[in-house]
Write a structure and sequence with these properties.
The chain contains one helix and eight strands; from the N terminus they run ββββαββββ. The protein is mainly beta. It starts with a strand and ends in a 23-residue tail after the last strand.
């Protein structure tokens, strides 16, 4: 199992690029995730993690996130291997995001479902909560 869930703030604006040939969007950025405990001086340290997002979510990240934005990330750890110009083998660890949740509400108006211009919805799509009938325990088929 390779599953990661993180909450942190972007350390810089996302960088968006498109894969030549396929045109697939890829956004990369890093986030700072506070550690649970403070160090000896009483300060909380942070881990800095590289995030990679693909397809339409990559474009959304590039359009609606910026340095300092608070995000929730769900994804998996990826380790890439490469060789430097000097022939040295190196590895780089990153998080491949399968889901990015925009958590900032700083630009949210009082009666709006938009955060930083991105439409949000907290109701499951296609479900009318008023469309359910009350059931009596005697009506349950099991």
């Amino acid at each position: 199992m390779n599953n990661v869930v993180l909450v942190g703030r972007l350390t810089k604006d996302p960088e968006l690029r498109y894969i030549p040939g396929s045109g697939t969007a890829v956004a990369t950025f890093s986030i700072a995730v506070d550690r649970e405990f403070a160090n000896k001086e009483g300060k909380r340290e942070a881990d800095f993690l590289n995030i990679e997002v693909w397809n339409k979510p990559a474009e959304n990240c590039a359009n609606y996130l910026s340095k300092g934005s608070l995000v929730g990330i769900q994804g998996s750890i990826r380790v890439d291997s490469y060789e430097t110009q000097n022939g040295e083998k190196r590895t780089a660890t990153k998080i491949r995001a399968s889901r990015v949740q925009f958590l900032d509400t700083k630009n949210r108006s009082n009666n709006s479902n938009k955060i930083d211009g991105f439409e949000t919805s907290f109701e499951p799509a296609g479900i009318d909560p008023n469309g359910f009938q009350a059931l009596d325990d005697d009506d349950v088929p099991f």
